[in-house]
């Protein structure tokens, strides 16, 4: 029987995964009527993942609603799901990407695949 | 005394890798910063604050349990910290666990019963292992970590593995390769009877 080779594990063993810097966030409600919140970014943590560019055709025809330029597809271990859902800032290669709580399920999608998460991130333009 | 851990690290190619963590303090009052790489060698950590080397005495320390730099000194918002260090792919705990697995396989194969004493020293109860036995332990640990190994060749032993060999078969072959027997090889005249005596 052929063994399944996990590309993620292969990259991990060879130390070739990309560093994804994630800033967890603390939200404090400052007005109980307006429900406005103050956002404080905590110190960053680093998650190593497989980062790929999403092709232009895939973004236009398969993933409608995403920006056609600058979207990245990342593969990370499943244990980081809550971290990605509750973070306030994501940095990959010194570029900032949209976070789950601001994306309203549109520009950041989390797809669960076995032990891994496949996450689509939209680049935030400066 | 041979350091089994460093022997295993040499065999699996787990050399020290240079790493760094770049931090900009945002003034949130939390002065604990997680390093971007795991298994950091504490002794290798150097910190630069705004481009100047920052000595550790009283200013910062490294907490191994949470893999973080804890800063005690003064930090102002937008201060930059550059932390440089070396790290390994596998942690000491991981490797020690794999070495214990290797000792289990060696014991099951009825080669010898080794035990781990005071962390790193491996004894079979009374005597220390020979250099060859240390190498056997390191080889089996490597097979456990990386079962895709295709062979092992040194001046003292040559072991070839087939592609279809399972991890267990490779371990068995390795132990067989390292087995040695004590005896004397000599020549007997052709007319000598070699039948066992009836006594």
Number of strands of chain B: 11
- Helix/strand-derived category of chain B reads alpha+beta
Overall outline of chain B: elongated
Helix fraction bin of chain A: 10-25%
> How many strand elements of chain A?
8
Portion in strands of chain A: 35-45%
Total number of domains of chain A:
1
Enter the CATH topology name of chain A: Thrombin, subunit H
User: What series of H and E elements makes up the topology of chain B?
Assistant: HEEEEEEEHEEHEEH
Q: How far apart are the termini of chain B?
A: 47 Å
Please outline the major beta sheet of chain B. 4 strands, antiparallel
Main sheet specs of chain A: 8 strands, antiparallel
CA distance, first residue to last residue of chain A: 50 Å
Low-confidence stretches of chain B: none
Q: What amount of the residues of chain B lies in strands?
A: 15-25%
What average pLDDT do the residues of chain B reach?
Answer: 84
Mean pLDDT of chain A: 79
Strands side by side in the biggest sheet of chain B: 1-7-3-4
What does this structure look like?
- The complex is a heterodimer of chains A (126) and B (199).
- Chain A is built from four helices and eight strands; from the N terminus they run H-E-E-E-H-E-H-E-E-H-E-E.
- Chain A is globular, with a radius of gyration of 16 Å.
- By secondary structure, chain A is an alpha+beta fold.
- In chain A, strand 1 and strand 2 (36-41) form a beta hairpin.
- Chain A has one domain (7-121): Thrombin, subunit H (Beta Barrel), CATH 2.40.10.
- The relative contact order of chain A is 0.20.
- Chain B has 199 residues and is of the alpha+beta class.
- Chain B folds into two domains: 4-9 and 91-178, no CATH class; 17-87, no CATH class.
- A four-stranded antiparallel sheet of chain B has the order 1-7-3-4, with no helix packed on it. A three-stranded antiparallel sheet of chain B has the order 2-6-5, with no helix packed on it. In chain B, strands 8-9 form a two-stranded antiparallel sheet.
- In chain B, a hairpin with a 2-residue loop joins strand 3 (46-49) and strand 4.
- In chain B, helix 1 (4-12) crosses helix 2 and helix 1 packs across helix 3.
- Chain B is elongated.
- The chains are: A alpha+beta (126), B alpha+beta (199).
- The A-B interface holds A 13, 15, 19, 21, 40-46 and B 17, 21, 23, 26, 28, 30, 32-37, 89.
């Amino acid at each position: 029987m052929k063994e399944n080779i996990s590309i993620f594990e292969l990259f991990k063993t060879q130390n070739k995964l990309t560093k994804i810097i994630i800033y967890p966030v603390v939200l404090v409600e400052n007005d109980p009527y307006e429900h406005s919140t103050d956002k404080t970014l905590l110190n960053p943590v680093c998650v190593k993942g497989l980062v790929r560019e999403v092709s232009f055709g895939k973004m236009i025809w398969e993933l409608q609603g995403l920006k056609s330029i600058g979207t990245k597809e990342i593969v990370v271990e499943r244990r980081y799901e809550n971290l990605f859902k509750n973070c306030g800032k994501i940095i990959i290669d010194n570029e900032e990407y949209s976070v789950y709580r601001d994306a309203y399920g549109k520009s950041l999608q989390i797809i669960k695949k076995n032990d891994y998460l496949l996450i689509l991130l939209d680049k935030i333009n400066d | 005394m041979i350091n089994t851990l460093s022997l295993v690290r040499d065999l699996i190619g787990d050399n020290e890798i240079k790493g760094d963590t770049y931090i900009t303090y945002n003034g949130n009052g939390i002065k604990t910063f997680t390093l971007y790489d795991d298994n950091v060698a504490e002794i290798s950590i150097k910190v630069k604050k705004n481009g100047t080397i920052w000595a550790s005495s009283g200013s910062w320390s490294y907490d191994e349990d949470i893999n973080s730099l804890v800063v005690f000194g003064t930090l102002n918002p937008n201060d930059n910290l550059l932390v440089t260090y070396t790290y390994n792919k596998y942690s000491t705990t991981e490797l020690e666990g794999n070495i214990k697995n290797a000792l289990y396989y060696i014991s099951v194969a009825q080669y010898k019963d080794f035990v781990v004493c005071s962390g790193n020293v491996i004894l079979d109860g009374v005597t220390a292992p020979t250099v060859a036995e240390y190498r056997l332990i390191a080889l089996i640990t490597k097979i456990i970590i990386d079962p895709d190994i295709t062979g092992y060749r040194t001046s003292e032993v040559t072991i070839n593995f087939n592609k279809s060999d399972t991890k267990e078969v490779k371990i068995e072959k390795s132990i067989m390769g390292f087995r040695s027997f004590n005896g004397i090889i000599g020549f007997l005249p052709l007319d000598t009877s070699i039948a066992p005596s009836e006594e």
